[in-house]
Recover the amino acids of this structure.
């Protein structure tokens, strides 16, 4: 009898941002495969008998090959085990959740995806930025600055969309992002917020403008993981209820 794989979003770091469903899945898991952007504190909700396997994949660092992770999940599921694949943020926002679910389903494994709070949402909220705001921002666009094939984003469309941009994996590409958005016609004074380690005790935020963001980040020594929020709302600073409870 085949087991089941849960692809679970662990949220951005603060264990209180886990969903009840994530906590239930963790409690049921025989095996937990944990990504390195996941706060290990969430393992408090896994069973003491569960086997915990770190499978970090941070860009630039030594990482576990994706094919190996696939095979691990498959092997344990075929042994009838309940497997939780724990990912930072949401599994389907730049988290390969879609490909893993498809790969497992093709092999007859039962898969369930549990949403997590993605870093972009939590990062903005914890420093008082509403990503949409009536009369100011009619939407949000989540994009990654990092592509496998080096294909380029449609910066013109992004700059003209009138939505707040939330950029993941952008720390090493600040110069390029700045150039592309300026060239695409975004105003140089557009507010930018760069939020490092969102929702964790070591969270830091750096406010700037599109024009100055690269210099500001360098002076601030901004490090990954960080998200960039670009848009009028990034100038907002009032504390939102979630920020006060964090
Ligand atoms: N699935 C994750 C994203 C994984 S991609 C999610 O939904 O959040 C990795 C990128 O996410 C990092 O480069 C960074 O841009 C962002 N990120 C993840 N955790 C973060 C955190 N705690 N604070 C700020 N950015 C974070």
């Amino acid at each position: 009898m085949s087991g089941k794989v849960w692809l679970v979003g662990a949220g951005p770091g603060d264990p209180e941002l886990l969903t009840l469903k994530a906590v239930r899945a963790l409690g049921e898991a025989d095996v937990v495969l944990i990504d390195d952007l996941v706060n290990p504190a969430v393992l408090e909700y896994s069973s003491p008998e569960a086997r915990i396997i770190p499978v970090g994949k941070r860009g630039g660092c030594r990482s576990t090959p994706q094919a190996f992770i696939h095979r691990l999940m498959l092997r344990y599921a075929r042994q009838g085990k309940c497997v939780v694949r724990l990912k930072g943020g949401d599994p389907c926002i730049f988290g390969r959740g879609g490909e893993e679910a498809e790969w497992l389903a093709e092999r007859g494994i039962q898969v369930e995806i549990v949403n997590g709070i993605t870093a972009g949402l939590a990062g903005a909220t914890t420093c008082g930025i509403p990503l949409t705001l009536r009369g100011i921002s009619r939407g949000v666009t989540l994009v990654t600055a990092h592509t496998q094939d080096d294909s380029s984003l449609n910066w013109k469309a992004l700059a003209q969309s009138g939505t707040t941009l939330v950029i993941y994996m952008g720390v090493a590409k600040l110069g390029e992002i700045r150039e592309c958005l300026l060239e695409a016609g975004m105003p140089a004074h557009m507010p930018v917020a760069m939020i490092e380690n969102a929702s964790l005790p070591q969270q830091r935020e750096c406010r700037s403008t599109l024009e100055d963001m690269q210099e500001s980040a360098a002076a601030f020594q901004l490090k990954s993981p960080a998200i960039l929020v670009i848009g009028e709302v990034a100038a907002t600073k009032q504390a939102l209820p979630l920020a006060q409870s964090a």
User: Anything to note?
Assistant: The helical segments are 20-28, 66-78, 97-106, 119-126, 155-160, 174-183, 213-220, 241-245.
